[in-house]
Design goal:
The protein is an alpha/beta fold. It has helices spanning 10-21, 33-40, 51-60, 70-76, 98-110, 127-138, 158-163, 175-184, 200-231, 235-243, 264-277, 283-305, 334-344, 357-364, 374-378, 391-394, 398-404, 419-424; strands at residues 2-6, 25-29, 64-67, 79-82, 115-119, 144-148, 168-171, 195-198, 315-319, 348-352, 368-370, 383-386, 409-412, 428-430. The strands form 3 sheets. Strands 3-2-1-4-5-6 form a 6-stranded parallel sheet, with helices on both faces. Helix 9 packs across helix 11 (264-277) and helix 12 (283-305) packs across helix 13. It is globular. The structure holds nicotinamide-adenine-dinucleotide (NAD).
Length: 435
């Protein structure tokens, strides 16, 4: 089985490396020459734990290769995965499918022999059929199939998620493509992974429905956290009491500054747009989209309100920039909104993140000074804000904060410290959903 993976971003690179680990021959294609030349010499363009080892192992074994040459790669492939970006389209909120359709046009030129073209990118309902038409128009001579195989991996634990998924969803148009994809995922039979086969439209919608549901769950606990602060309850105990109910489950009940990342923000908006397009509404998700946006700004207000003399010219230390730990992905990170708001009010921002500072530099330019470690970030700060819950921040003691800081305000947007210990060290400490 020869697999081509178009796009070597978080999804394409991890999926390609994992398929080669399953034993298939995989060629990953990207337009970005710099990325491809880095990957050829085992340098990772993204931070993802364990990925460097997996890529090197499979490149050394000759099962995994990288190229910018789409035409030969696609011509040799039995299965071509499309794993390019589907960001929010400027202006109207729909998913921007230009990368997907451009890839489909290119693939159509070069496939030879029966080939299954599979979308791994998150694409709105109906996209698979459009890809089918694009290829059919160019290649009426050829037998091919289009399938949908949305990806559910999470950045930070992407390899494990791919190798040990809760389920695999595959939308197909017929038996032949189903047989091919059964083979592709047959290594997961050993661990009895459920493989759900559906039609194209259903598979496409499953991905959006799942992501939007998780976004609703996060927003729900964030609103409960706000209520906890008003009534003097502890959100962690509330979440525990809820999560022990098996119908609810404990995951995604951790309060914070609002969801970010490369998926939930754009996928919730795209789902709302899909519903509108067919004359329907998903009002719960509409509400979540606007609440989550407001929440990020309200976090900035929360920080400002902790300083009696205002934030102007204050030294604000930010611990954590990535949208979550164990990734360098800054796309739609809450840090972007929060820092921009504080900066616009005249704060002097110094920030530290264990992995995302290179990425962050392109977002913030000279708005932010970057510290070389957490101690240097905290030193002399009037206020310290925890935005991403990296493990290394958990180990910073309360006395370290009070020794290093100039002021004493600590705003913990991830609840990683004990309120008693922090206050015991003389800090003016606040967190989310607990008093
Ligand atoms: P990304 O932006 O990190 O990577 C996309 C890559 O595709 C880039 O390297 C780009 O150069 C390349 N590319 C674009 N057009 C190309 C073409 N015609 N030929 C070759 N290469 C091309 O994107 P990502 O985060 O990996 O996401 C990809 C898709 O997977 C999106 O639809 C996303 O919603 C979905 N997804 C992402 C995650 C995640 O955690 N990032 C999880 C599940 C699903």
């Amino acid at each position: 089985m020869q697999i081509a993976m178009i796009g070597t971003g978080y999804v394409g690179l991890v999926s390609g490396a994992c398929f080669s680990e399953f034993g298939f021959n995989v060629t990953c294609v990207d337009k970005n020459e710099n990325k491809i030349s880095q990957l050829k010499s085992n340098k990772m363009p993204i931070y993802e734990p364990g990925l460097d080892v997996l890529v090197k192992k499979n490149q050394d074994a000759g099962r995994l290769s990288f190229t910018t040459d789409l035409n030969h790669t696609v011509a040799d492939a039995d299965v071509v995965f499309i794993a390019v970006g589907t960001p929010t389209r400027r202006g109207d909120g729909h998913a921007d499918l230009s990368y997907v359709f451009d890839a489909a046009e290119e693939i159509a030129e070069y496939i030879s022999g029966y080939t299954v073209i599979v979308t791994k990118s998150t694409v709105p309902v109906g996209t698979g059929k459009k890809i089918f038409k694009i290829i059919q128009q160019k290649r009426s001579d050829l037998k091919f199939d289009v399938a949908s195989n949305p990806e559910f991996l999470r950045e930070g634990s992407a390899i494990n998620d791919f190798m040990r998924p809760d389920r695999v969803v595959v939308g197909v148009m017929g038996e032949e493509a189903k047989n091919v994809l059964e083979k592709v995922y047959s290594p997961l039979n050993l661990i009895e992974t459920p493989i759900q086969f559906t039609d194209l439209e259903t598979a496409e919608l499953i991905k959006y429905a799942a992501n939007a549901f998780l976004a609703v769950k996060i927003s729900y606990i964030n609103q409960i956290a706000d209520l906890c602060e008003k009534v003097g309850a502890d959100v962690h105990d509330v979440a525990k009491g809820m999560g022990l109910d098996k119908r609810i489950g404990a995951k995604f009940l951790h309060p914070g500054p609002g969801f970010g990342g490369s998926c939930f923000p754009k996928d919730t908006i795209a789902l709302v747009k899909t519903a509108e397009q067919v004359g329907g509404r998903i009002s719960i998700v509409e509400e979540v989209v606007s609440y989550n946006q407001e929440r990020k700004l309200s976090m900035a207000q929360r920080i400002i309100s902790r300083l009696k003399t205002g934030i102007k010219n204050k030294k604000v230390s930010i611990l954590g920039l990535a949208f979550k730990p164990e990734t360098d992905d800054m796309r739609d990170s809450p840090a972007l909104e929060i820092i921009s708001e504080l900066y616009s009010k005249g704060a002097n921002i110094i920030a530290y993140d264990p992995a995302a500072m290179n990425e962050a530099k392109s977002f913030f330019q000279d708005k932010v000074v970057f510290a070389e470690d957490s101690e240097n970030c905290i030193r002399g700060a009037d206020v310290c804000v925890i935005i991403t819950e990296w493990n290394e921040f958990r180990a910073i003691s309360a006395s370290k904060f009070s020794d290093l800081m100039n002021g004493n305000v600590v705003v913990d947007l991830r609840n990683i410290y004990s309120p008693d210990e922090m206050r015991g060290a003389g800090l003016n400490y606040s967190s989310i959903g607990r008093v």
